[in-house]
């Protein structure tokens, strides 16, 4: 019986290896397919992209030949959550088979992101690193190692520029189920999180988990369980 593909989009500074913890908890009917942004991981030799439209197009090219082969869903955290939504819009524009579900963690609704006044990508190095430290997502061995910092800083700056310069345009809401999970100690307003409802035709399933922005590393089993339960209904229908 064919599996459901789960395309996973990395957060800022992440790579296709960012969701290895998720793979340990996958049920047998799910096939995790991590996507890779240019300029990191297995695509280290390619130039970084700072334009969100180019990045969405790049992601579309990565999944284009897989969209009709098997049912699929898309997951993304933080910047990956925004790109998850924009990729779904791109897939709709291209007239391709839509995802079964969008799973988004750690980010406000696109309309809120568009009006953010934070421009972390313009900060000096010391202030920029302090911002990274406050997100609780980078190990101290990276933050205290000058060589590693010099390596990852331009990647993070490029990614922050992508999301911080995002200009939202209202479009027809997606006719796709959406689940949004955020941490209880994240730096975002509840009303900004609820703006995801503007982008979905059906009621969004909003959930909270304890922790800061990178709560996903503490609860990989719980997050995968939510994804699996949502998609199990579709998998059973394919078996009939």
UniProtKB/TrEMBL annotation:
Residues 6-230 form the Thioesterase domain. InterPro entries: AB_hydrolase_fold, TEII, Thioesterase. Pfam families: Thioesterase. GO terms for biological process: lipid biosynthetic process. It comes from the Bacteria. Belongs to the thioesterase family. PANTHER family: S-ACYL FATTY ACID SYNTHASE THIOESTERASE, MEDIUM CHAIN, THIOESTERASE. This is Thioesterase.
């Amino acid at each position: 019986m064919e599996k459901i593909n789960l395309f996973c989009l990395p957060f800022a500074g992440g790579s296709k290896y960012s969701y290895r913890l998720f793979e340990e908890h996958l049920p047998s009917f799910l096939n995790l397919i991590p996507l890779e942004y240019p300029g990191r991981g297995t695509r280290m030799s390619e130039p970084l992209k700072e334009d969100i439209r180019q990045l969405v197009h790049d992601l579309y090219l990565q999944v284009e030949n897989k969209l009709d082969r098997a049912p699929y869903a898309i997951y993304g955290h933080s910047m990956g959550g925004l790109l998850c939504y924009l990729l779904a819009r791109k897939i709709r524009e291209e007239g391709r088979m839509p995802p079964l579900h969008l799973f988004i963690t750690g980010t406000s609704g696109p309309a809120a992101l568009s009006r953010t006044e934070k421009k972390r990508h313009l900060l000096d190095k010391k202030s920029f690193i302090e911002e990274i430290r406050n997100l609780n997502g980078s190990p101290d061995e990276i933050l205290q190692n000058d060589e590693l910092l010099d390596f990852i800083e331009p990647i993070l700056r490029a990614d922050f520029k992508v999301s911080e310069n995002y200009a939202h345009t209202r479009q027809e809401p997606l006719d796709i189920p959406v689940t949004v999970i955020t941490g209880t100690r994240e730096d975002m307003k509840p009303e900004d999180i609820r703006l995801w409802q503007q982008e979905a035709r059906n009621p969004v399933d909003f959930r909270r988990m304890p922790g800061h922005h990178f709560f996903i590393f503490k609860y990989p089993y719980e997050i995968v369980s939510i994804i699996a339960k949502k998609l199990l209904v579709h998998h059973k229908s394919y078996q009939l």
